[in-house]
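Worked example 3. Consider a protein that binds zinc ion.
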Amino acid sequence: MKKASTLVVTFDGLRRDRATAELMPNLAAFMKSGVNFINSRSIFPSETRVAVTSTVTGAPPRDHGLVANQYIHDAVVQGRTFQTADYKDLMAADAIGQLIDRKALGERLSAAGKTMAVVSTASPGATWMMNHKARTIGHPVFSVHGEPISTLDLHRAALEKFGPVPADATPNTARLDYACSVLTDIVYPEIDPDLCIFWMSDPDSTSHAFGVNGAETEASQRGADAAFGRIVELWRSGNGPENLVVMSDHGQITGVQQVHVAEHLPQYADRLSIGSFSGLYLENQTPETLAELVKYLSEQPWCGLIFAETADGQVIDGALPWSAVSHGHKRGATVGFTLRATPPSTESANRNDQCLFAAYIQPGGGMHGGLNRGELSTVLAAAGPAFVADMVSEVPCWLPDIAPTLLTVLGLPTDGTSGRVLTEALVGDGRVPAVEQRTLTAKIGGHEQYLRQWLVEGTAITDCGWTGGTGTWRL
Ligand SMILES: [Zn+2]
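Given these inputs, the predicted complex is written out as structure tokens:
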């Protein structure tokens, strides 16, 4: 075991109120034992590859520039959207310096002579982004998708020891189990990394197919929790990492009805990238044409929150500025919008938040990407010698805070990250930051939109966003 070594375990798509002791006893017990960040949030858009990149760079999309799961990126691909799920698109962008604008954890550790390992059952693109320079800096990666997402030596060692990787399934427990064995029986005994990311594709992929509360989704949570139980055992044995951090990248809510967004915006067919969060990538827009577009969107019964600003950063009536959600990168959309979703509920547990969806799932399946609290609320907890024990932290935090905190635990500089070191949770520090609250609004006609945020030492972390007036959720 290396001093200060830390393992980050991610449960993809696990909404905080779904991480119950009944479904996930090992996780629930662990979260109680260390510091439990009960107000942890994702980023916007709450999509996996954006979340991965925000986690490993310690920065929101405004700063790292991987602006959505898919987007229009003319410098790299023309005639179709840039796909972050596809490592070839990621490589092509990186080759011309158009992938991300901030250093990721792998590069930072490499420069300090330390090793970061990745073991993942996530998509090829998501796994690639966990340590996108792994091949050039010689860091090990194991992916269930094999080479070239996996690095050669680690993948061969896994196949030799455990045989072929089980087939993809929902629940994906057999794959999670296999990856867990790679972590516990190869990566720690043979590589002993300073930092490791272990990423589990469940419950996300199963929840997309069977819904947030589906029996199969609950089975996938139990499967992920069983794998986590084996990791806790390794950690307690003293043969794994010193510190253990658990997180999720976003939550999920229930998609109930499909919207064919492109049919409503035919004149933008080749400049539109569709998702739970959709973007229009436009050039040479005047403030007047942007205002017209925002007004048109605000009148659509499927449209949720709208983000836009003029080329010189001026507010457009009816839209929130990109800066409100730490977005607004030069590669980002000119105008973006979410699909309509239910407003925030006062109930804290087992809410059944709903939204419209554009693609990918069947009605009743889980969805994410927008600003509903069910999509933004994540799990984050940590334990080990670096972290305070038995602590419930109410201080709001988000994915960009994770990298600077890990770097501090590892004794490395945090320059170039935008997140906050979670000092309140660290042994030997304990500083608690000042927190304020605000609600941003924008209105046009009857369409109203709201963003409830915390300001933590001046940084806005979005709790949730919703629409009202004629934008109120109705089916
Ligand atoms: Zn995800």
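Take a moment to read the result before moving on. Residues 12-13, 48, 51, 204, 249-250 surround zinc ion (CB under 6 Å). Residues 215-237 form the longest helix (23 residues).
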